[in-house]
UniProtKB/TrEMBL annotation:
Homology family: Belongs to the enoyl-CoA hydratase/isomerase family.
Region described as Disordered: 155-177
Family annotation (InterPro entries): HotDog_dom_sf (IPR029069), MaoC-like_dom (IPR002539), NodN-like (IPR039375)
Name of the protein described by the UniProt record: Acyl dehydratase
Domain MaoC-like: 15-120
Pfam families cross-referenced by the UniProt entry: MaoC_dehydratas (PF01575)
Length: 177
């Protein structure tokens, strides 16, 4: 697999609409699930190895949805890299939907499409990636999400101007006291 390389954050603008690639598979082992439970305090029985999870709705322990989402950053690193980026900041996520649980010991991988990229103020390029995270052997993805990121640095294009504020005025006669 080849990592796609962009010369600078501004170069992302020219790739809008393109599929950037697919990551390698990442195994989500039970020890990773247990560690995530310890860090977050989410010890729900569906994530724990043992008879309760075996008899539960998924036939065994499953990874936390937010654990699988947190694995997205290293999967994106497997797909593309932006040179001359002095900082990469996670801005947020939109339209996150968990559609299939990831069994403990299962494998996931991500496919990313560059939905938008635009120059912003202070040398940032704002990027939206549409991501589908597959579960090996499953027809439906683990999740779909739009990821918003800010890249700083490199040669910049002029920022997209913010729209002018619109003032609304009440129609009709004004009352006087």
């Amino acid at each position: 697999m080849t990592v796609r390389v962009f010369a600078s954050p501004a170069a992302l603008v020219d790739a809008v609409g393109e599929e950037l690639g697919t990551s390698g598979w990442v195994t989500v082992g039970q020890s990773t699930v247990d560690g995530f439970a310890e860090v977050t305090g989410d010890h729900q029985w569906i994530h724990q190895a043992g008879s309760a999870a075996e008899d539960g709705p998924f036939g065994g322990p499953v990874a936390h949805g937010f654990l699988t989402l947190s694995l997205l950053i290293p999967m994106l690193d497997d797909i593309f890299r932006v040179e001359q980026a002095s900082a990469v900041i996670n801005k947020g996520v939109d339209r996150l939907r968990f559609t299939t649980p990831v069994p403990a010991g299962g494998r996931v991988r991500a496919t990313a499409t560059l939905s938008s990229a635009r120059a912003r103020v202070r040398g940032f390029t704002e990027v939206v990636l549409s991501v589908v995270a597959e579960v090996e052997g499953k027809a439906r993805p683990a999740y779909t999400v739009d990821v918003l990121m800010l890249y700083q640095g490199g040669e910049q294009r002029p920022p997209v101007p913010e729209p002018e504020p619109v003032e609304f005025h009440r129609a009709g006669p004004r009352r006087t006291a």
